[in-house]
TrEMBL record:
SMART domains: CoA_binding
InterPro entries linked to this entry: CoA-bd (IPR003781), Rex_bacilli-type (IPR058203), Rex_DNA-bd_C_dom (IPR009718), Tscrpt_rep_Rex (IPR022876)
Entry similarity comment: Belongs to the transcriptional regulatory Rex family.
Name the UniProt record assigns to this protein: Redox-sensing transcriptional repressor Rex
Entry keyword Cell cycle: no
Name of the gene this protein is made from: rex
Organism per entry: Enterococcus alishanensis
Ranges annotated as DNA-binding: 16-55
Length: 212
């Protein structure tokens, strides 16, 4: 299997599959069909079978999928057996909410440190996470060997912070700012624009039926 041959849309669905398989496994279910998965996670069964086909023979036609085997397979692909420490840059309203979230859907992801410039929060422990001054970011990221960062800062500060993160050794950035950020080709930036997502949702609410 060549990882770069897996469509991005498929990769985005893997955590959804994995999460539901964990639920089934906890409930003691041993077998599941693509139809059952489809009904539970609202992804059509043809898409599920196509997604799974990228990873070889995961099940047998008419027999279904072994829940535990499939769960372990996707867990390994998603590195859920390894703890991944993440840095959060910006402890404003959204950043604070992410600290409280604590990524309950995965036991393998942990925000281990946060960075900000506000004097009233730097040096404090917020929801169990130490907040360091921004000027110590490169040092702490290298010290803690962190490779992933989340950006929840004003857009105009985004590129300067990304440049520092790259220098510190960060390999992946989840960008919640509205800025279009650039980085070397070996750095992955995944942007989440909440305004765009809401506007897209509003469009489909009002115009979705027009395309049918």
């Amino acid at each position: 299997m060549k990882e770069n041959s897996i469509p991005k849309a498929t990769v985005k669905r893997l955590p959804l599959y994995y999460r539901y398989l964990r639920i089934l496994n906890s409930a003691g279910k041993t077998k599941v069909s693509s139809t059952e998965l489809s009904e539970a996670i609202q992804v059509d069964s043809a898409t599920i079978r196509r997604d799974f086909s990228y990873f070889g023979e995961l099940g047998k036609r008419g027999y279904g999928y072994d829940v535990e085997d499939l769960m372990n397979f996707f867990g390994k692909i998603l590195n859920d057996d390894q703890l991944t420490n993440v840095a959060l840059v910006g402890v404003g309203n959204l950043g604070s909410a992410l600290l409280k979230f604590k990524f309950h859907q995965s036991n393998s992801i942990r925000v281990s440190c946060a960075f900000d410039v506000k004097e009233d929060i730097v040096g404090r422990i917020v929801d169990g996470i130490p907040v360091y001054p921004l000027d110590s970011m490169k040092e702490q990221i290298k010290l803690q060997q962190i490779e992933i960062a989340i950006l929840t800062i004003p857009a105009e500060q985004g590129q300067a912070v990304v440049d520092q993160l790259v220098e510190a050794g960060i390999k992946g950035i989840l960008n919640f700012t509205s800025a279009r950020l650039s980085a070397p080709d070996n750095i992955i930036i995944q942007s989440v624009d909440l305004t765009n997502e809401l506007q897209t949702l509003i469009y489909f609410l009002h115009h979705g039926n027009d395309e049918k």
